[in-house]
Amino acid sequence: MSYWWKIINYIFNKMYKLKILFEDKNVMVIDKPAGIAVHADARTKPKDVTLSDLILDYDKKLAKVGEPMEIEYMGKVIKINRPGIVHRLDKETSGALIVAKNQKTFLMLKEQFQNHSIKKVYKAFVYGHVSDPKASLLTGKRGIITAPIGRSPLDIRMWTAGRGAREPVREATTEYVVLNRFTDNSKGGLNQNNKFSYIEAYPKTGRTHQIRVHMRYINHPVVSDPLYRGSNVFALGMKRLALHSHFITFRLPGGELKTIESPLPLDFKKVIKKYLSLK
């Protein structure tokens, strides 16, 4: 390794030091920063550091935990190791991520994800003023987006909801609450381009890009989403996808129900302070 690459690697490790929100002998919950992929994929460059790399730096024994993922790239099957990784967050999404520390716990957590008993709460800024959902005995004050998700016919990187999705499509449901609506008056007069909403989202299923796709489906894509924002420009000073995994609730091997919070990151706090006057 060259001298300059050692310096770059040192700076990167300082920036992306593994932050652990909870840990016991079976599980740890990591506070994932935005800008780092959970594990390698076909687009990962050899020098890219992933969260999986940081996990192995922390505990090399976790290399034996979990299930590798196989992908096909340029006619070859590539095996990607995912040490203890039970689920994933998109590269630009921040927040709570569960890692199993042994295979028994991995399989137990995997089952919880498969039967949708793990509860996740996300915070997001979205374009436009989201209307209050109609209240009912079934939903309370939560909005419900139920639209199957499949691959986009236009871009292999993207997914789409409803009509036009490529088979196979999978059922997907997201609930949400509008926490606040606000405008960015620095953009001039009131128009659709400077309206925003702060929402809380509760994915009931775990499809790829689910919250991002569903918010676009109702014409309120997540702010600064590199794939799904459409003609909307990057906004609110958010230089990345404005989506944060705030809480996650799961059962430990002993049966205890555990809720872990990932504090709002600095970029979220800046938007809240500037536009919402919240602490």
Description:
- The radius of gyration is 19 Å and the shape is globular.
- The longest helix is centred in the first third of the chain and has 13 residues.
- The termini are far apart.
- The mean pLDDT is 86.
- It has two domains: 115 residues, Pseudouridine synthase (2-Layer Sandwich), CATH 3.30.2350.10; 160 residues, Pseudouridine synthase, CATH 3.30.2350.10.
- It has five helices and 14 strands.
- With 279 residues, the chain is of the alpha+beta class.
- Average per-residue pLDDT, rounded, comes to 86
Second CATH tier, the architecture of the largest domain? 2-Layer Sandwich
The multimeric state of the shown protein is: single chain
Task: Tell me roughly what share of residues is in helical segments.
Answer: 10-25%
Distance between the termini: 45 Å
Our Rg estimate from Cα atoms comes to: 19 Å
The count of strands amounts to 14
Coarse shape: globular
> The biggest beta sheet, please?
9 strands, mixed
CATH topology of the largest domain: Pseudouridine synthase
> Low-confidence spans: pLDDT under 50, at least 5 residues?
none
